[in-house]
Amino acid sequence: MRIGLAGVGRIGVEHARALAGHPDVDGLVVQDALPARAAEVAAELGVEHVPDVAGLVAAGVEALVIAAATDAHAALVLAGVDAGLPVFCEKPVAADLAGTLLVRDRVAAAGALVHVGFQRRFDAGYTAAREALRAGRLGELRRVHLVTCDPRPPAVQYVPRSGGIYRDMHIHDFDALRWVTGREVVEVYAVGAARGHEVFAASGDVDEQTAVLTLDDGTLATVQGSRHNGAGYDVRMELAGTDDTLVVGLDERVPLRSAEPGVSFPHQPSWPGFWDRFTPAYVAEMTAFVAMARGEAPSPCTVDEALAALLVAEAADRSRREHRAVRVAEIAEAVAPQAVSTLQEAGA
Q1: What does residue 115 show for φ and ψ, rounded to 5 degrees?
Q2: Which homologous superfamily does the CATH classification assign to the domain defined by 2-120+282-300?
Q3: What is the tens place of the pLDDT at every residue in 243-297?
Q4: Judging by beta carbons within 10 Å of its beta carbon (0-12, 13-18, 19+), is residue 15 exposed, middle or buried?
Q5: Three-state DSSP class for 145?
Q6: Among 51, 209, 274, 329, which residue's CB has the most CB atoms within a 10 Å radius?
Q7: Rounded to 5 degrees, what angle do the CA atoms 58, 64, 67 make?
Q8: Per-residue pLDDT band at 151 (split at 50, 70, 90)
Q9: What distances in angstroms separate CA 261 from CA 4, 200, 257, 258, one per listed residue?
Q10: Domain 121-277 of CATH type 1.10.3720.10
Q11: Counting Cβ atoms within 10 Å, is residue 95 exposed (0-12), middle (13-18) or buried (19+)?
């Protein structure tokens, strides 16, 4: 299979390496907004490069991987769909809800195959937790606690265009919560604080946050996050049931230290960042995409599923801003007229 890859920044170059070494990929063509970077990656991997996205499609690729800047995602997905290509797109598929709905409807109308990148679905711990819960080994699920804490803030120039902590970072928690539990989030109450660099407050964002989520069966979930966790990269999910409790991410590199005498766990250095923590998941994600593109499996994460996680993120952000509980249905109902208008303006 011949695959085109748009965007070879930090994540894109790793996707390129995974695809170049995949036994079912016999040709890879890379492109980047910085042509010199694409040329460098192509030389390293011994693959082709082209100057623009049109060149990718013209190069006879059979599938498209998108790891470009966020504001380019929607147009690139639609370009791939219009060319009849199976598409992988790093989250998000668009910069806002209206754009996401536009992409969702165009994908549905075309009957296209699109895989949205939520790599935790391919992590061994999250997969094991999902299987244990669905096999009944935890009993009735009562509580879920999720943590995502970065060791250091993103680049200052990135913060104003990131979409905020819920859309940029915690959307992974919202997707994992839905995927592992099989339940939908119906209500969110979130609070946050800008405690670090002034760019967060200036951008209307926060770098510390806590949210309480209610699932459709009454299960309660909490989500905590930070943009500056000095101990290291901390990503965990705790599922507490009537029979047992299971924790994802409680490994030898978890950035936690016990205050209890005689307890030395963990014994290895903390995870320094997301790529180190999730490398196997990212590789497995590309393998799953190739299988989808070859017609051997359905999409592991559709645009509809990405939209569901985004609705929760929007509800969390509105809750924090307005200091009240927000039902997810309120967000969906409010955006529908805007989405219809966007579709009409786009001529879709």
Answers
A1: -115, 115
A2: NAD(P)-binding Rossmann-like Domain (3.40.50.720)
A3: 999 999 999 999 999 999 999 999 999 999 999 999 999 999 999 999 999 999 9
A4: buried
A5: strand
A6: 209
A7: 120
A8: very high
A9: 54, 38, 11, 8
A10: no
A11: middle
**pLDDT digits 0-9 by tens, 34-91:** 999 999 999 999 999 999 989 998 999 999 999 999 989 999 999 999 999 999 999 9
- Same CATH topology for 2-120+282-300 and 121-277? no
User: What's the token pair of residue 214?
Assistant: 């209610």
Residue in this structure with the two tokens 């536009």, named with its chain if needed: 102
Domain boundaries, the chain: 2-120+282-300, 121-277
What is the C-alpha to C-alpha distance for residues 213 and 302, in angstroms, rounded to an integer? 23
**DSSP, res 195:** -
Q: E strands, 113-168, where?
A: 114-117, 141-149
pLDDT of 342: 39
